[in-house]
From TrEMBL:
UniProt family annotation: Belongs to the iron/manganese superoxide dismutase family.
GO molecular function, one term: metal ion binding
Superkingdom to which the source organism belongs: Eukaryota
Function noted in UniProt: Destroys radicals which are normally produced within the cells and which are toxic to biological systems.
Family annotation (InterPro entries): Mn/Fe_SOD_C, Mn/Fe_SOD_N, Mn/Fe_SOD_N_sf, SOD_C_sf
Reactions mediated catalytically: 2 superoxide + 2 H(+) = H2O2 + O2
Name of the protein in question: Superoxide dismutase
Limits of the Manganese/iron superoxide dismutase C-terminal domain: 62-129
Pfam families according to UniProt: Sod_Fe_C (PF02777), Sod_Fe_N (PF00081)
TM region positions: none
EC identifiers of the protein: 1.15.1.1
Length: 129
């Protein structure tokens, strides 16, 4: 809530109708640190919490399992790599599973503070570290 409240104070009615992701990307491109931090943290937390749900099925979708196995050798190898990457993310930040449209592969990336996937990276899963 604090990110949204501060974001609304900074924005007013500017950029109305834009997605939160588009606002964060524009703010970063414009070098507007305060706006980027609020918008990106709002995006990151919204994405993070949207992935959580009660009574989720005990197994992952077959398509995801196939993709993880293709790019990480196995689901267990992915889990280990994801946790290792997260533990190595110094300070405040995020660890992401992204799909990179440039080479059509799943990758694990770390971002610091309010950082979020950029460019050809599309978020699949994240963990707040």
């Amino acid at each position: 809530n604090a990110y949204v409240t501060k974001l609304n104070q900074i924005l007013g009615d500017k950029l109305e109708g834009e997605t939160i992701e588009a606002i964060a990307v524009k703010a970063k491109a414009d070098g507007d640190g305060p706006l980027f931090n609020q918008a990106a943290q709002h995006f990151n937390h919204s994405f993070y919490f949207a992935a959580m749900k009660p009574n989720a099925p005990g197994s992952m979708p077959a398509e995801l399992e196939t993709a993880l196995t293709k790019d990480f050798e196995s689901v267990d190898a992915f889990k280990t790599a994801f946790m290792d990457k997260a533990v190595g993310n110094f300070g405040s930040g995020w660890t992401w599973l992204v799909y990179d449209t440039a080479d059509t592969k799943l990758k694990i990336v770390n971002t610091g503070n309010a950082g979020m996937p950029e460019g050809t990276q599309r978020p699949v899963l994240t963990m707040d570290v």
